[in-house]
Write a structure and sequence with these properties.
234 residues; 41% helix; globular; single chain; alpha+beta
């Protein structure tokens, strides 16, 4: 089976034949969900599936693959025409490689500061024994060898600078997290992946921006995988 996450639902479908085109899968999903064909995007492994003429094997779709269906019911409304009495908005400057890199870093920093702490809290609540093991300090300092000169202990101070500061955990759970907690974080991370994908301009010869975007997508996808893995193993 393949699994399709759509809003708060998870749909399950038999694995299509390997030669099946992405367009066929998109059409089947549109018919099943009653969504307009061009109103949603499909995401797998952090990448938007765009080429409807490509076979599903090109996107590595196989048994137990999970595809995210984004859009459909939440399409942005058509912009309201400006009234003649109002001045026309200024035309935006075309993006540059540096401005794109800045936007990518801003999005990644937003995930790190607002979503990662919540994911850490949820994972810790699901696996308290793991969290306790990781955060437990050493119980005693090493004993010097017999006959050697006494040395100053650095067990609590020398190693501290080498440890990354813990993420703040604004969310705490007095009981086990619920399915809605998992769904909320999963949807927010998928939306971040979509925003990162939109920052990639096809045909732009910006190697640094492409590298930044690839690393950001990998990091956000890793957070999503960690969230889903902890939830599945609960």
């Amino acid at each position: 089976m393949i699994h399709v996450k759509w809003d708060r639902e998870t749909l399950h479908f038999p694995v299509p034949p390997p030669e099946t085109k992405l367009g066929k899968l998109r059409t089947d999903l549109a018919e099943y969900t009653h969504l307009p064909l061009g109103s949603f995007k499909l995401i797998h492994a952090g990448a938007v599936m765009k080429d409807d003429s490509a076979p599903l094997t090109a996107y590595k779709i196989r048994e137990n693959s999970t595809i995210a269906l984004i859009g459909g019911h939440s399409l942005p409304s058509a912009p309201t025409p400006a009234t003649p009495s109002r001045p026309q908005p200024k035309v935006k400057e075309p993006p540059t490689e540096q401005s794109t890199i800045t936007a990518i870093r801003t999005e990644l920093n937003r995930v790190r500061t607002t979503l990662v702490p919540d994911v850490d809290a949820l994972v810790s609540a699901l696996t308290p024994s793991v969290a306790t093991t990781v955060s437990s300090p050493p119980t005693s300092a090493p004993t010097p060898a017999s006959g050697s000169a006494p040395t100053q202990s650095f067990s609590s101070t020398a190693q501290a600078p080498h440890l990354p500061p813990p993420h703040p955990t604004p969310t705490s759970y007095s009981s086990k997290p619920t399915a809605s907690d998992h769904t909320r974080l999963s949807e927010l991370l998928l939306q971040s992946l979509l925003r990162l994908d939109a920052m990639h301009l096809a045909g732009s010869d910006w190697p640094e921006a492409r590298a930044e975007r690839k690393a950001a997508v990998r990091e956000v996808q890793g957070v999503l995988d960690r969230l889903d893995g902890a939830w599945s193993a609960r």
